[in-house]
Amino acid sequence: MLHTHKPYKADFLTDHCPGSYLLVAAFSALLVLLQFFQAELIFQRYLIMEGEFWRLWTGNLVHTNLWHLALNLGGFWLLVFIQRPAPPSRTLIAQILFISTCVGVGLWFFNQDLIWYAGFSGTLYGLFMLTGIHLLKQKDWVSAALILGGICGKTLWDWSQGGMALSASLIEAPVIYTAHVYGMLGGIMLSLPHFFRHLTNR
After folding, report:
1. Greatest CA separation found in the chain?
2. Residue 176 phi/psi, 5° resolution?
3. Are the CB atoms for 174 and 164 separated by under 8 Å?
4. Crossing angle, helix 121-137 and helix 89-110, to 10 degrees?
5. 42: closest CA among 120, 123, 117?
6. Can you give the C-alpha Rg of the chain in angstroms?
7. Confidence class of residue 14 from pLDDT cuts 50, 70 and 90?
8. Burial bucket for residue 118 (CB in 10 Å: 0-12, 13-18, 19+)
9. Using CA atoms, how far apart are residues 75 and 79, in angstroms rounded to an integer?
10. Residue 88 CB coordination number (10 Å)
11. Triad 8, 14, 18: Cα angle to 5°
12. CA 131 to CA 87: how far, in whole Å?
């Protein structure tokens, strides 16, 4: 039999369209640019109380120093290479907005002794959680276990060290591991509709 079309085979190029690369590159450039406006964007509890509500979200987009920024950008690009397939650009933007909201609101209500916060890691942990759950649904057990075990293990380690793990010396600030927890909870919440849809279609 003559086959006129090659069978589909998922690979890096088919799973990652140029649009997703453009978005990630643009977002990375945005994080670098926003670092110049750290004072105006960082999560500052007293300033939020005075009406600067945008800091609940923008605190996730600025960092304590360049090491902090580089670590989170590296994690973000690692996430892009892991995802199969990569989500559409609008979906990724919506995921970042929702998880960042979970982090900012979580810190506001449940960490009332926290005065300030900066960093994309809480949102990043949520994106990794969402990716790990997606890989579970694809039955990619090894990759899912590595991702989910990695972020949960790192969060437990930071908790056991009181936020003063090795990375704390690099970023020149304690690791706010509760932000990672709120981000992961946001990732779990985003995965619930797909989970229930999968159950109803069985």
Report:
1. 73
2. -85, 85
3. yes
4. 120
5. 117
6. 18
7. very low
8. buried
9. 6
10. 13
11. 160
12. 10
Looking at residue 23, its amino acid is L
Name which of 189, 12, 10 is nearest 101 in CA terms: 189
Tokens of 172: 């020149």
Amino acid at 59: G
Tokens of 112: 């009332």
- Report how far residue 114's alpha carbon sits from residue 8's, in angstroms, rounded to the nearest whole number: 51
Cβ 120 vs Cβ 72: under 8 Å? yes
Cβ-contact 185, 128 below 8 angstroms: no
Quick check: 8 pLDDT over 50? no
Angle, in degrees to the nearest 10, between helices 141-160 and 177-200: 150
Tokens read off for 133: 């759950």
Dihedral sign for Cα atoms in the order 110, 114, 119, 121:
negative
Q: For the chain, what is the mean pLDDT?
A: 87
- Residue 158 φ/ψ, nearest 5 degrees: -60, -40
Give the C-alpha separation, 114 to 30, whole Å: 26
What is the pTM for the complete model shown? Answer: 0.88
User: Around Cβ 59, how many Cβ atoms within 10 Å?
Assistant: 26
